[in-house]
Amino acid sequence: MSVSLNKFVAATGICSRREADRWIEAGRLTINGQIATKGNRVETGDRVALDGKLIGAQPDRVYLAFHKPAGITCTTDARDPDNIVDFLNYPDRIFPVGRLDKASTGLIFLTNDGDVVNEVLRAEHEHEKEYIVTVDRPYDDRFLERMAGGVPILGTRTNPCQVERLGKRRFRIVLTQGLNRQIRRMCKYLGYRVMTLKRVRIMDITLGDLPVGAYRELEGFFAGGH
Length: 226
Fold this sequence. Notes:
By secondary structure, the chain is α+β, with helices and mostly antiparallel strands. It folds into 3 domains: 2-55, RNA-binding S4 domain (Structural Genomics Hypothetical 15.5 Kd Protein In mrcA-pckA Intergenic Region, Chain A), CATH 3.10.290; 63-122 and 206-218, Alpha-Beta Plaits (2-Layer Sandwich), CATH 3.30.70.580; 128-202, Alpha-Beta Plaits, CATH 3.30.70. 20% of the residues lie in helices and 30% in strands. It is built from 6 helices and 17 strands. The chain has helices spanning 5-11, 17-25, 84-88, 114-121, 141-149, 182-189; strands at residues 2-4, 29-31, 34-35, 41-43, 48-50, 53-55, 63-68, 95-97, 105-111, 129-135, 152-153, 156-157, 162-165, 170-175, 194-202, 205-206, 215-217. A hairpin with a 7-residue loop joins strand 8 and strand 9. Helix 1 (5-11) packs across helix 2. It is elongated and about 65 Å long. Belongs to the pseudouridine synthase RsuA family. This is Pseudouridine synthase. One of its GO terms (molecular function) is RNA binding. Its EC number is 5.4.99.-.
């Protein structure tokens, strides 16, 4: 029985399938000493290496919910002194599922299961993500209506979404999209600047009272079909 190379690499817990594809394109992966190409499959007994170092054994699955502080970057790049992996200093190799802006706070998942990345992030799944946002000045009902109805950014229009007033400058917003800096760009288009942005829910997992900078395990959660 064989599996696709990108799925094999993701199953080892070192990256997502998307990242594995980039490694294949860069010529960094080999199968039995031969440089791999897209479409290659891995058979039982094949020796797969990244930059000449063998990879293989599937580790125990790790799923974490983390309360990201402001100032931490959602990257595994060790050259970034504020990278999320070094901040957590978790004993196993893990990586973030998606991202939050460096200035933003709140819930983010980390895992060593590359398949979860596709499951959570694929747009067609329309998983909800909930945020609490504070802007730089009081807004009116028209602002809420326009945010909820869709705003033109990045050459497209944002999908209709749920928006709820929480105060003169604070509101709750639930997105099923993941456009780059989406909420900040939406607010900017309407003439407002985001002062604080906190993600409090992804799907049915909530941040709850998890302290800033702390994490909790979600063992078995994704095995439940999410």
